[in-house]
Specification:
The structure holds two protein chains of two kinds. By secondary structure, chain A is an alpha+beta fold. Chain A is built from two helices and four strands; from the N terminus they run βαβαββ. Chain A is globular. Chain B has a five-stranded parallel β-sheet. In chain B, β1, α1 and β2 form a beta-alpha-beta unit. The chains are: A alpha+beta, B alpha/beta.
C-alpha cells in the first residue's frame, strides 16, 4: 500500500478534455500556499503525460500519478 | 527579453491565420496550455484569423473544404453516433444551410466530449495574460475598425511580431 497523501484541496476535472485539466490545475494551484497539496481527478487519457509535463514546466512537484476507479488521480505539491 | 535572461519564463509565439471553427481551436488550446505552464504567450492574428478577436465569435466549419472531416451525429445510441455518414459532395455543396448544420453538429459533439467552446478557450487565454496581437494590415484590407475587436487586442505589423517571436522558445504558424 502506498503512503496516504493528505491533500489540502481537491479539483475534479472529470469529463473535461485538453487543455482544461491543465488550465484548471494551474488556476487551482495559484490559490494554494507553498507546500500545500492539490489532488486533481481527471478522465482525459491525455492527462497523465500532460500533468508530468506541466509539473516539469512549472516546478510544482507531481508526488503521485495513479488510477483509481477508472479515473486518473494526481497529487501535486505547490512549489 | 526572453533569451537574454536565463531565469525568464519560456515564450511561445503563434500565428493564427485561419478563422474557421476547426482552425480556431489549435492556437487557443496551445496558448491556454502554455499560459497554464507559466509561459509567456503571444498570438499574432492575421488574415481570417483576425476575426477570432471579434467580441462575438461566429466561427463555422465547412465540410466541403474539409474532405477528411468525419460526418457524425452527436446524439442517439453509441452505434449510431459512430457512423461516418457518406454524404455526397453534391449535397454538401448545394443544400442551403448545410454548413450551418455541420457547424451545429460539430459544436454539439465538442460539448458532449467535454471540449471547451472557442469563447471559453479565448477567455482562458486572456485570464493567463496571453497577448493578442491583431494584424493592422488585415484590418485595413478588410475594412475593419479597432472598435470591432476585443479591447485586449494590440494592433501591430509584422515587424513587431517578429521581434516578439525572435525571443520565443517555440514559434508556430497555424
Amino acid at each position: 500500500m502506498p503512503d496516504i497523501i493528505k491533500e489540502d484541496q481537491v479539483l475534479d476535472c472529470s469529463g473535461m478534455l485538453c487543455p482544461m485539466p491543465v488550465v484548471k490545475t494551474s488556476k487551482a494551484i495559484k490559490e494554494l500556499q507553498s507546500g500545500q497539496i492539490l489532488k486533481m481527478i481527471a478522465t482525459d487519457p491525455g492527462a497523465p503525460p500532460d500533468m508530468e509535463a506541466w509539473s516539469r514546466q512549472t516546478g510544482n512537484e507531481l508526488l503521485r500519478s495513479m488510477q483509481e476507479d477508472g479515473k486518473f488521480v494526481f497529487y501535486l505539491r505547490k512549489k | 527579453m526572453s533569451k537574454s535572461d536565463p531565469n525568464a519564463p519560456k515564450r511561445l509565439a503563434l500565428i493564427a491565420s485561419k478563422g474557421t471553427l476547426d482552425w480556431a481551436y489549435p492556437p487557443f488550446i496551445l496558448a491556454s496550455a502554455a499560459g497554464a505552464m507559466g509561459w509567456e504567450v503571444g498570438v499574432f492574428f492575421t488574415f481570417f484569423g483576425l476575426t477570432l478577436l471579434k467580441p462575438k465569435l461566429t466561427t463555422a466549419v465547412t465540410p466541403v473544404g474539409n474532405p477528411a472531416m468525419p460526418m457524425k451525429m452527436p446524439f442517439g445510441p453509441e452505434g449510431f453516433q459512430n457512423i461516418n455518414w457518406p454524404i455526397p459532395q453534391l449535397i454538401m455543396t448545394n443544400v442551403p444551410g448545410f454548413d450551418a448544420l455541420a457547424t451545429t453538429l460539430m459544436k454539439q459533439t465538442f460539448k458532449n466530449k467535454g471540449v471547451a467552446s472557442i469563447d471559453e478557450m479565448r477567455q482562458m487565454c486572456l485570464d493567463t495574460d496571453v497577448r493578442m496581437f491583431g494584424c493592422q494590415m488585415t484590418m485595413d484590407v478588410f475594412g475593419f475598425k479597432r472598435e470591432d475587436f476585443i479591447k485586449e487586442t494590440e494592433f501591430c505589423g509584422a515587424a513587431t511580431f517578429l521581434e516578439y517571436a525572435a525571443d520565443a522558445d517555440v514559434q508556430l504558424f497555424i
